[in-house]
Structures are given as structure tokens and as C-alpha cells.
Amino acid sequence: MEDIKTTHDIKILVNAFYDKVKTSEIGFFFNDLAQVNWKKHLPKMYIFWESVLFATVKFDGNPMGAHYPINEMAAMEKHHFETWLKLWKQTIDENFTGEIADSAKTKAENIANLMAYKMEMARKLS
Ligand code: HEM
């Protein structure tokens, strides 16, 4: 196995990850609550991860902000983020190995932890 090196690698990773997510216990956030348009969401996520891992592009979305409305529809709890992370790490380990693959796991973990905390705080303050 090789490291995550190209935009094409990111596409493979992101596609395989959301294939798992869709049929997992956190799938309802995407399928039922947000009713995600995958044709739009996936390309957005390619750019997001390219900006996080390669810094060759700038992501102009709002990674934290996008989740508050979803958190209002159904609480996004710590265990949901644990499932998200488990699937992300599993998808990486099934396809890639190396420094960037490791950093994709660490960075996701940091963002997921911060996001879980922010969602919990938003619920407490509402
Ligand atoms: C339980 C965990 C999570 C759930 C259920 C979830 C769900 C969602 C949903 C439903 C959307 C909106 C899609 C749309 O309407 O097009 C979204 C957007 C997004 N998510 Fe998550 N997410 C989770 C965790 C994360 C984590 C940990 C990250 C980053 C490492 C992340 C990054 C993003 C980004 C970058 C967007 C697009 C933001 C934008 O539109 O500007 N998500 N997520």
C-alpha cells in the first residue's frame, strides 16, 4: 500500500468513506436529516481534505458551522463522532499507509473532538 499522494487518492478515500457512512448508524444524519446531495457534497469534501492534507487549495466552506443545523435536528453526540472516526480510520487503513495517511487520522481526530465539544456546548446553551 502507498501513502495518500494525489487528488485522485483523496477521491478514492472520500468515496470509500462515505460509502461506509451511508449504511452505518450515523447514516441517518446524511440520508434522512440533511438529505445530502452527494453530487455536491463529495466534491466539497475532496477540496476540504486536499486543503487539510496538501494545503494546495483553500476550502471556502464552513466545516464547523455546517453542523449546527444538523445538531439541532438530532443531537450529534460523542458516540456518533466515535463511529465517524472509526470509519474514517478504517477506510484509511484499508487503502493507504504512510505519513500523510497518519496525519489524515490525527487531523480528523482533532477536528472531530473539537466538533463534538462544540455541538455539546451548543445544546447546553440552547
Ligand atoms: C457524527 C459526525 C458527523 C456527521 C453526522 C456529519 C454530517 C454532515 C452533514 C449532514 C453535512 C452537510 C452535507 C450537506 O448538506 O451537503 C456535513 C458537512 C460537512 N462535514 Fe460533517 N459530519 C460529521 C463529522 C465531520 C467531521 C469530523 C468533519 C471533519 C473532519 C466533517 C467535515 C465536514 C465538512 C467540511 C462539511 C462541509 C461544510 C460546508 O458545507 O462548508 N464532518 N457533515
Automatic annotation (TrEMBL):
<dbReference type="InterPro" id="IPR012292">
    <property type="entry name" value="Globin/Proto"/>
</dbReference>
<protein>
    <recommendedName>
        <fullName>Hemoglobin</fullName>
    </recommendedName>
</protein>
<dbReference type="InterPro" id="IPR009050">
    <property type="entry name" value="Globin-like_sf"/>
</dbReference>
